[in-house]
Fold this sequence. Notes:
The chain is α/β, with parallel strands linked by helices. About 40% of the residues lie in helices and about 15% in strands. It has a 5-stranded parallel sheet, with helices on both faces.
Amino acid sequence: MSAATASTSIPSTRPIRVVLAKIGLDGHDRGVQVVARVLRDAGMEVIYTGLWQTCEAVVRAVEDEDADVLGISILSGAHMALVPQLVALLRAGKLDHVRLVVGGIIPETDIPALEAAGVSRVFTPGAALGEIASSIHTLVGR
Length: 142
């Protein structure tokens, strides 16, 4: 069963918890802040870790916050190096039930490799904000 289709056991009374993060040296976070607001407005609990995070720090935040979803925003072009590291750390921490979504400047040609590595969804520039929220609801089964 792929990460995108695995079922979850999130209690229906608890809001979906989403950790949003910027990893690496990418210093642009306006987009992730907009997404955070949209997800909050959609009833989710959102934890934004801020700029310049390491993969290790982000995985710790996911575990500490008992997150259902990890959203990574990458504009730097380092996604093919950083996202596989992140997936490996999630698996090593037995957090592979956490849905991973990635947004930012991601070439269409890289999306299949990211999905094969364990990314549930990739959102490129122009993705509708409502689509991001509804996709997360779908990914966690609520």
